[in-house]
Amino acid sequence: MVVARQLRLSPPPSVTVSSILYDPTSLSLALMHSDSSFSLYPRISPLSPPPLHSATTTATAAAAATVVSPPSSAAAFLRLRRNDTVRVIFLVASPHLAGSSILLRFYMLRTDNQFARVRVICNQSDLEFDERRFGVLVRVNHGVSVKLAASINVFAMYSVSDRKVRVFAVKVMEGDVVKLMKTAVIDCDLPVFSISVDIGFLILGEVNGVRVLPLRPLVKGRVKKSDKPKVQKFSLGNGMMLGSNGSSVLYAKSWKVNGNLEEKIGKHYDNSAKLKPVKMRQSSQEGGVRFVPFKSKDFEDYKSSKVPLEMSIKAISIQFLGHNKFLILDSVGELYLLSLSPHVSGSESVHEMKKLTLTMKVQNLAVFPDDSTSPQTVWVSDGHYTIHAIIVSDTTDSTANENDTKDIEEKIQRSATQVIFTSEKIQEIIPLSANAMLLLGQANNIFAYAIS
Fold first, then answer.
1. By C-alpha distance, which of 101, 265, 72 is closest to 90?
2. pLDDT grade for 408, boundaries at 50, 70 and 90
3. What is the secondary structure of 148-196 as a DSSP string?
4. Residue 339, beta-bridge partner list
């Protein structure tokens, strides 16, 4: 059975909605408008029955909306984990001074269910907290666009013009203050079309495949000490060790079996130690970095020929599925299942890419990451008026032979359980839960669908 409900917000958006983001952890909805501003709605349950209309209800809903002023070029929800507490931050990147630098604004969801901008501590030379704009100025050329991808305590930013990926670690401090540290800079020789940070991996969507980088070496950074003071250390239970003098010392726990990265990065607040970002090239093959092509034969043919960039196949969307697996959407509408193996020092990681045979060219993809369930529901759309709910079973195995792989592809092709026809042309779909998703229609309407 399919349950459908139109989402009615109060106050309703006054500007056309061009894109939507949703954080399942905090039930927060972010609407990007045509003027590049954002409206933030916390504690939104799209499938819950609408409340009774009253003056009190309307006033409460109106007060809950937070407006992020334009311009904005990229945004992401960032989760900060400290001990057993998770705080949610809405991170926004904007051009500053005609694009000569990037302004990062941090909006934290407070305990009163309001988003508010927070102060950021940053001590590195190319990062500066601007009191007037209440955000962090990154001395990097913004250029035509930037991309953001965030996970737990970590986010990555790619500047198309600067051709670099920067990895940042974020730590929540006392009094709703956060600390920002740049931990890695990756020089990109090739264009990047999508980016993902999840389960201990940084994945870059490139031409004819994706590049997989273990995240832990990029987040740990390098610590250069002028001396070695003796400090007594107390565990904060999240990868950080706190010195007896109040300074935080760089330590990192290994990520868990389920893939959740539990690393926290810090440094001495005095001058005894400085965190130095890791620097590497995109084409490096050290430290477990691997390029995984869509098809090995096609990749070899591409390397031996001069295919124009606009005619090449690109990885345009990377979404975590669960159980160390990702779904990759390419620029011609094909879908691939990427299976990752954890990087073990001294050994070569083995990653697999398998094409899923579908009866449509996919234009929109929505995946709710879930390690607890198998099989999982994936939402795909042709970008017109239909959405398919597809069951993807976690039955693939790295030891499977070619015949087994074909069987799996055929099973996935036959496993479309629901088809939803919409009255509006589909602009975007995003996951709400394991069996529900949110749809943005062309007429500025937002609908929630669930299957049971």
1. 72
2. very low
3. EEE-BSEEEEEETTTTEEEEEEEEE-TTS-EEEEEEEEEE-SS---EEE
4. 325, 352
